[in-house]
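Subject: Predicted fold for Methyltransferase family protein, 245 residues

User T.R. writes:
Posting the sequence so we have a shared reference for the thread.
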Amino acid sequence: MSGRARAFGAAADDYDRLRPAPAPEALGWLLPSPDVTMLDLGAGTGLLSRALAAEGVTDVVAVEPDDLMRAVLAARGPGVRALAGTAEEIPLPDRSVDAVLVASAWHWFDHERATAEVARVLRPGGVLGLLWSAADPGVGWIAELGRVGRVEAPRSAPTMTGEFTVELPAGAPFGPGESRTFRRSTWMAAEDVVAMVGTYSSVLTLPADAQAEVRRRAREHVEQQVGTDPVLVPFVTAAWRTVRE
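User M.O. replies:
I've generated the structure tokens; pasting them so everyone works from the same file.
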């Protein structure tokens, strides 16, 4: 895992409190049945794991390399098996899971090695599902907030605005992929919208004074655009799935 990816641990509590969980409809599309053994790969603080539990999935294994993120996961998702590990070295036996889901983390992986490991641990017919969830960049004030907050689209992440494709390494034992986007809205305190900007790696890796300046500019923008009262924030989840051959 890159040094930039490891920056999230320093903001684990805020990340867990402020980042959006995937839309429930996206999980239903990826996993038509909850009766599966599911791997949450690059699980972070367990936002996806807990969302899966809420949808009735009872056998969830979460793999996360960052100790601070994994500690939050273990504390707030007591029914989830939390393991130290990476996408490039998954600490599970061959053909041991029915589905592998990756939420807002695929862009951090070595795709050659991670794809081989996912293929190893998935049973034939199992699902690989990739998700990215974010405040909807198709809404003007949110798009501008991303620019103010230096929130960059990660490499290999979708545009969040429509259909998209994910290219797996040549020869990977997976069928054709398909994608969908799902939208929902959540009420947030204006100050939490500002704080959410500070949970992205492009901000977390800045010096402390630069982070403070980003937060100041983000606060100014939010107050100008939506005021200081709670605001209904539109979110989008981009989801992609394929099946292990």
